[in-house]
Automatic annotation (TrEMBL):
<protein>
    <submittedName>
        <fullName>Uncharacterized protein</fullName>
    </submittedName>
</protein>
<dbReference type="InterPro" id="IPR050698">
    <property type="entry name" value="MBL"/>
</dbReference>
<dbReference type="GO" id="GO:0004521">
    <property type="term" value="F:RNA endonuclease activity"/>
</dbReference>
<dbReference type="GO" id="GO:0004792">
    <property type="term" value="F:thiosulfate-cyanide sulfurtransferase activity"/>
</dbReference>
<dbReference type="InterPro" id="IPR036866">
    <property type="entry name" value="RibonucZ/Hydroxyglut_hydro"/>
</dbReference>
<dbReference type="InterPro" id="IPR001307">
    <property type="entry name" value="Thiosulphate_STrfase_CS"/>
</dbReference>
Amino acid sequence: MAPEKSPKTSNFCQGLSWEKPLELFDDLTVQLFPSGHLPGAASILLSYRTSQRTYKLLYTGDFSLSNLQLVEGLSIEALRGLSPDILIIEGSYGTIRHSHRRQQEKQLMQRIHECLTHGYSVVLPVPTLGLGQEILKLLRSHHQFTGRELDIWVDGEVANACDRYLDLLSEFPLSVQNFAKHQPLFWDERICPRLRRLTPQQRGKIGQNSCIVLTDDLTTLYDEGYLLSGLWVILFPASPNEGQTLESPEIMSLMERVSIHSESYVLAEHSDGRNTTQLIHNLRPQHIIFVHGSTINLRDLTNLEEL
């Protein structure tokens, strides 16, 4: 018999409505705003009231202003003119500017298409949450892949995360819900490209025909013999915040002992320099703290003359 949950543990988590102030104490409230980074990712506004004035602190967390495949971007309109006393904002990409999100998607789809056309299979190391599910939605809906005779295999915890996304489908943007009404968002063996979980039965078989594999553990995938058949290309996310990259120690060690061609691509789930400064100008904060980035990138942001 499972032990009964104590009141402390059963009340530990509480769902909060977006943008609706919640009073934590008589003088302190919190509001959550969708930050556009991942489904459910939130920016947090704390408001502290005194007899003289109200102090505001906004923590963006990881954020993106661009609409992704499965997430709508952080709304500037909801925060415009907020004028927080303190803004704590991520600086993952520093002052680097990226091309438009749809252009990034187009370039990645084109590169995968080229690899498959030339007889290669493609493996994409991705984090458990976020980037992998974005790419799967792209592959299911992009004109270069819809109806294509192709198998897409999803490995490990990335597959489990897809299940959690499906559990929460009613909380996703209407465009995603409408897509899922016409064809499965993820698992599908009927409509091409077929989307399947990677199982031990495919060991030594995948790669005989060109296919795509998404994994959050490339090293184990290789060591267990999944990439031994056929020709392979590994496409790594260029961002240091998006899972295993070419600079990851375990990947550098792996690449020293295998002869698989590798490249990197940009499909950013964090704000670039242009969008970071755009948000700051619309918020008009009194003080700014940059976090979540390399020392060089954060220094570049703090040295911007326009700030």
